[in-house]
Design goal:
disordered N terminus; alpha/beta; 234 residues; 44% helix; 8 helices
């Protein structure tokens, strides 16, 4: 009776295209297959025809939530613990002035004089960018570089602005300005007599960095009409 039943099962298995030897092995050793079950987390199950559990709709939703959580966490940490990234730079206003004037003298131009009002204007511009979290000449609320300059009662005929961020040393900043035609034009313009600098550390777009603002100017004499020229470097 038992032999007949097994033979009938074998014949049935052959009809279904199954290997009876393999089937008998797995039936006698049900635990042997357990160690292979993990593959169905990544591959469709051959019996239930269900999707791999790691690729199910529920799993995909969980992945998306984890990504959003991680992104938010990386944005939040610098705001709660500003020093956690440990960013540091060695940029000094005195070095920026010396390096800028070296480039001007080499080009046959006069040296720029450091102006206190332009320096204050540059410092307020840097603070404003950190406060409003933007990186541009014109802020989201429409504030322009000239608003900071005029706010320090610096009346000009010519004025300009260069910006830089994510640099570590003063000479790198000046070399970067010189490497760009538009910034070089600002730095070597014969229209400017005075300059102001600001070097500020802070959080911008969730990351700690150093902003450098360079503001140029020529005081306006009576009867002259003001004009401006602006550039920036990232």
């Amino acid at each position: 009776m038992s032999d007949l039943s097994q033979e009938q099962n074998s014949q049935s298995d052959h009809k279904d295209g199954k290997n009876p030897t393999s089937i008998r092995f797995w039936r006698k050793n049900p635990k042997a297959i357990d160690k292979f079950q993990f593959i169905y987390h990544f591959l469709p199950h051959p019996e239930s025809k269900s999707r791999a559990s790691m690729l199910s709709h529920k799993a995909i939703i969980i992945y998306c939530l984890l990504i959003l959580f991680a992104t938010g966490l990386f944005r939040l940490i610098p705001l709660v613990f500003p020093g956690v990234l440990g960013y540091a730079s060695d940029i000094k206003i005195s070095d920026l002035l010396v390096d800028s004037n070296k480039k001007r003298v080499a080009a046959g131009l006069s040296e720029l004089r450091l102006n206190e009002k332009l320096t204050d204007a540059a410092d307020k511009k840097a603070s404003h960018m950190f406060e409003k979290n933007y990186w541009a000449h014109i802020s989201p609320d429409g504030t322009e570089p000239w608003d900071f300059i005029l706010g320090e009662n610096y009346d000009y005929i010519y004025a300009g602005e260069n910006l830089a961020k994510n640099f570590t040393h003063s000479d790198e900043v000046v070399e970067a300005w010189m490497g760009s035609p538009s910034h070089r034009d600002n730095l070597l313009s014969p229209n400017y007599d005075e300059v102001g600098f600001a070097v500020r550390d802070g959080i911008l777009d969730g990351y700690e960095t150093t902003l450098v603002v360079q503001m140029f100017g020529r005081p306006r004499a009576k009867g002259q009409v003001a004009s401006v020229y602006e550039e920036k470097i990232f």
